[in-house]
Amino acid sequence: MNATTTRGALLAALACVLVGGSFTANSLLGDYPYAGGQFLRYGLALLLLLPLAGPGATARLRALGAGRWVRLALLAAVGMVGFNLAVLAAERTAEPAVPGVFVGCAPVVVAVVVPLLAGRRPQRVVLYGALFVAVGAFTVQGWGRTDGAGIAFSVCALAGEVGFAVLAVPVLRPLGPRLLSAVVCGVAAAESAVVGVLADGTGWLPRPDAVEAGALLWQAVVVTVVGFVCWYMGMQRIGAERATLFSGLIPVAAACTAPLVGTGSYGAAQAVGSALVFAGVAVGSGAVRPPARGRRAGAGRQEAFERSLEKL
């Protein structure tokens, strides 16, 4: 791995560790209206991200066509608001491990879907790494009680996780990580407000107590501002396929932080699953390097992929 890909891998890893910690923060928001919490989280993140958008942000936004604005709206609706809604809906009739297992399959789906959309074959080393990550995520979380609705909403959560990466690919280059993060947070805040009014009426935005305020601040400042920017910076450097491998660190981070608030434990299964995730990330991201000829072929396919994205 060169300096660029190493930096990209570290950024993606940091982002996913922060997101994993957010699941622990979610456990402190069980009584707060979902849409109101999402509005506060993304609205505050927008205010913090706007000064970081960089010069020429207005011009870059004006240059976006209607199709890319639709993509941004879908990214916020599917990968942010919809993803969190699906997880909460799944957990009404399923144990939390069930949507977690489905979300852990996102690296496999992205490793197949992204190359096919670009008109190329999936890279075998990335696919193998993604399978390791998925098995490791399952081992960390295990399986739990569920029903048909729980599985259906868990599939929706998987679609949201995949959409968060795939839908961002064509708009990442023209906007850049910071402006893209700001825009999708603004769109997600507006969508959350609409959902809140429709679902909860006038009670959609109550005043949070001290614990809820702390959890929301953590999600807005650390998980969203820092996490989103790091995620898209990492994806910009190593591509969506390899970046999504690091989503396997989300259940690992969640398992490590859960004992801190008394919502879980870290035992032998979590240790074995963590090792499988680390192995999958190492193989798929290129930290364990393939032969030189394979690396040149992979680099050529990556360059062709990036050229095809510019045409979208």
Automatic annotation (TrEMBL):
This protein's record includes keyword Cell cycle: no
Compartments, record wording: Cell membrane
Membrane topology designation: Multi-pass membrane protein
UniProt main location, coarse: membrane
Residue intervals passing through the bilayer: 40-57, 69-90, 96-118, 125-144, 150-172, 179-199, 211-231, 243-262, 268-288
Family to which this protein belongs: Belongs to the EamA transporter family.
Listed name of the protein: EamA family transporter
